[in-house]
Write a structure and sequence with these properties.
mainly alpha; two-stranded antiparallel ribbon; elongated
Length: about 280
């Protein structure tokens, strides 16, 4: 689900979609690819919100300490931090039930910010990706893929004719043609995957909103009290103490922080890359 697990630097769904297409020098083909970019940008915005932003929330809430974080664990981590803020009195955690936000009590500014940023994120999940959007993305890209594929042999022959005297250059443009086509196919695949992820997150969203109660906060009293003995006051450090060793990342705290930093840097490698350079990162 793109949860930031320890399977590698970036899972497939965590890799930003390429939205810059190199030219094939076939005007009618390049026009098809150019008209696809706006669709890919929209899909990438959904991917970023549903995947990258969620992983960032996992880190800031403290759920990153889990080997397999999920949205409910991230909310638990927020409660642990706010419980520590309130001198281990989970029933005194300040929460405004009218505006559905954390405030009051002895909540720290940072504790409120992290918890409210995450709560606001989960509130808007249901409206972030609609079924008609998903179907429209897939339909539009599929039409463009079909246009390219049904004339692929002709396109390759045209490139060959245009560069008879420079076959190396012709080969490069043929490669770009295939790379750009793969980007469109990847866009369709990602649009479908994101729809499934979105639906899963909607279920988590409903559960989290129902957990915004003093009764739920107080159910964490034992864990908060145990963590208070270690005098840690930041989300990830608190979570690291509370989480059972067998459920925690197989790293020490410092390495877990470093792993997140590596993931952020890996994201940046894919941004603002043309199709050729994008696939060079993948060694294709």
């Amino acid at each position: 689900m793109g949860c930031g697990g320890s399977k590698g630097v970036l899972e497939e769904i965590e890799k930003p979609i390429c939205t810059i297409m190199d030219k094939t020098e076939l005007n009618h083909v390049d026009e098809i690819f150019s008209n696809s970019i706006e669709i890919l940008i929209k899909i990438e915005s959904k991917r970023k919100f549903l995947i990258d932003d969620l992983i960032d929330h996992y880190f800031h809430t403290g759920a990153w300490a889990f080997y397999s974080p999920d949205p409910l664990k991230a909310f638990d981590c927020c409660i642990w931090k706010l419980g520590i803020d309130n001198k281990n009195n989970s029933f005194q955690i300040g929460f405004n039930s009218k505006d559905y936000c954390f405030e009051g009590g002895a909540n720290s500014e940072n504790g409120n910010k992290i918890a409210n940023d995450y709560l606001n994120y989960m509130k808007i999940i249901p409206d972030m990706y609609k079924e008609d959007e998903m179907k429209n993305f897939i339909e539009q890209l599929s039409e463009k893929i079909e246009l390219i594929e049904e004339n692929m042999v002709t396109h390759i022959k045209d490139i060959g004719k245009n560069y008879e005297e420079n076959p190396i250059k012709g080969f490069r443009f043929c490669k770009i043609l295939r790379l750009n086509l793969n980007i469109l196919k990847n866009g369709v695949k990602i649009a479908k995957e994101l729809w499934n992820i979105h639906n899963t997150l909607v279920k988590f969203s409903s559960k989290i909103l129902s957990n915004c109660s003093t009764e739920f906060f107080n159910s964490h009293y034992g864990k908060i009290y145990m963590a208070s003995r270690y005098k840690q006051f930041e989300n990830l450090q608190i979570a690291w103490i509370i989480i059972q060793t067998n459920l925690r990342r197989k790293l020490n705290y410092e390495d877990a922080v470093k792993e997140y930093s590596i993931k952020i840097n890996a994201r940046k490698q894919y941004l603002n890359k043309s199709s050729e350079n994008y696939f060079k990162i993948l060694n294709i």
